[in-house]
Amino acid sequence: MKIAEALNAAAARLAGMSDTPRLDAELLMAEAAGVSREQFLLSGAEGAVPAGFEALVQRRLAGEPVAYITGRRAFWSIELEVGPGALVPRPDSETLIEAALEHFGKAGPKTVLDLGTGPGTLLLATLDQWHQARGIGIDRSEEALDFARRNAERLGFGNRAAFRIGDWIDGLEERFDLVLCNPPYIDDTAELPRDVKEWEPHSALFAGTEGLDDYRRLAPMTGELLTEGGIACFEIGVGQEEAVRALFIAEGLKVRVKHDLGGRARCLIVER
Question: What whole-number distance in Å separates Cα of residue 135 and Cα of residue 51?
């Protein structure tokens, strides 16, 4: 079978369990060939189908996320190592980086805090954006922090990024110019795709019957975290804007919203 035929066949098989079957097939083919997807597409998809391709397709058909199969996921301007125990970075979360860029411009923040950092997603993207910035990433999962530390070292940010195990800001005394947070915000009863529900860490996904449990804890903490002129950017789920906004306003904080590329309220920007 030629590569083009194998791709078409794999995409057809993956269509029943993936929203992006063709992209998945291309990423898996490139992984089997030992090249990036861009290199694979530029090559014209010539040559024999790599021997390992079918095994990768079978893993995807079993529900394993593509990012776990390949061991990496692109986010903003960086590529992150990911795997079981770490939340897979999503494009929606780039809205927080965009909000920070609009607020700080080229000057950027000097100090950054990433709460629930996972594999270092938001913190490391910020450090790549502003080379003078330093930051701390906090997470409750040592598995996730192992990924974060490796990512920081590989990207050359080991001297600017520190990672700590912790439950939000417990034991934290510093103030920061920029606070970033993608907390769990999914309703405990929500139906999720198989590759999310069966593979990604539930502690990074679910937050009570309304998906608001962690926002209720974070809102009273936020003001004390910020320097003068600083902002906090919180990712929110679809339909949560008013409920989450009210929690921060009740703490005397100023709140505005930034929409993602799909026009959905995705980022709450909080100021003292």
Answer: 43
